[in-house]
TrEMBL record:
This is Cyclic di-GMP phosphodiesterase Gmr. Residues 24-276 form the EAL domain. It comes from the Bacteria. The gene is gmr_1. It is found in: Cell membrane.
Length: 276
């Protein structure tokens, strides 16, 4: 009896593994098609400058509009795109699209707005990263100083050494580099000193509960970032209290639902017309 139960257990496990694998292959295939069929879309979330009290940047955030399945969020497909390598063509599309939209905003008179684009570790590791970014900017007609690239700390720590040189070249062109989701990965405060970043984005987890200790931690991170010559963005600002706290802690920029959700192009234009 025990043996039979074990066998059944095993075969059930086996078939669910099989099922999961099939699901994954299907998802990978439809993601590849989505790129060709124009089903990928960028949303844009404003970042406000605290001192100027107006939006100064927009972060491009990828959405996948699946024909029958509605909108899929990056958490559900970026990992698959990364593992399959699809993130390379997708990332190239994202960068071009985001830079073009930023150039378009400039043409409408919002001529100091810059765009921030998330770069996956896999993209950062590409040997031709620098040329590819340069060509994309040229194609979009956007000056490098209007582009900020965000790299999640936990994703690239393994390959940091191999990327450092490329990062230096990107910065040499005038592109800013931001360390995304700071606090979720492994970089210590002291390691920050060694990293070639212009901007530190403090992860939204830090805002979840602002007690005395937590708030002192955030203030200290911001002070240190400033000592190291970095700008700070506090993400995940959802309430007026959090917005006040971030400003009081001397964050340079703030981003979150309190200011705006990520918006489709048209809605972003409406938003800009209202608040800029
Ligand atoms: P991220 O770069 O840290 O982006 C911020 C995420 O927080 C976004 O989720 C955004 O919608 C969400 N968010 C913004 N404000 C708030 C807030 O006030 N409260 C809360 N709870 N959440 C807020 P989203 O759009 O689902 O993206 C998730 C992650 O997927 C991004 O995190 C980024 O790491 C990745 N991602 C998005 N687009 C791209 C892309 O084009 N390329 C790559 N490689 N990764 C991307
Ligand atoms: Mg980001
Ligand atoms: Mg992230
Ligand atoms: Mg983040």
């Amino acid at each position: 009896y025990a043996k039979e139960a074990k066998m059944n257990g095993y075969s059930r496990f086996d078939s669910s593994m099989h099922e999961a694998m099939l699901q994954r292959i299907k998802l990978e295939n439809s993601l590849a098609k989505a790129l060709e069929r124009n089903q990928l879309e960028l949303f844009y979330q404003p970042q406000w400058d605290v001192a100027l009290n107006k939006p100064v940047a927009i972060e491009a955030l990828l959405r996948w509009n699946r024909s029958n399945k509605g909108r899929v969020f990056p958490g559900d497909f970026i990992p698959i795109a990364e593992e399959s390598g699809l993130i390379i063509p997708i990332g190239r599309w994202v960068l071009l699209e985001a830079c073009r939209f930023c150039a378009y905003l400039h043409s409408l008179g919002y001529d100091d707005i810059y765009v921030t684009v998330n770069l996956s570790a896999r993209q950062a590791e590409q040997p031709n990263l620098v040329d590819s970014v340069r060509e994309t900017l040229e194609e979009a007609g956007l000056e490098p100083r209007f582009l900020e690239l965000e790299i999640t700390e936990s994703l690239f720590m393994n390959s940091l050494e191999s990327c450092k040189d490329k990062f230096r070249q990107l910065r040499g062109m005038g592109i800013r580099l931001a360390l995304d989701d700071f606090g979720t990965g492994y970089s210590s405060l002291t390691r920050l000193r060694l990293l070639p970043f212009d901007v530190l984005k403090i992860d939204k987890e830090f805002l979840r509960e602002i007690n005395a200790e937590q708030s002192e931690i955030i203030r200290t991170i911001i002070k240190l970032a400033h000592v190291l010559g970095m700008e700070v963005v506090v993400e995940g600002v959802e309430t007026v209290e959090q917005a006040k706290f971030a400003a009081d802690a001397l964050s340079d920029r703030v981003q979150g639902y309190y200011f705006s959700q990520p918006l489709a192009r048209e809605n972003l234009l409406t938003y800009m017309a209202r608040v800029y």
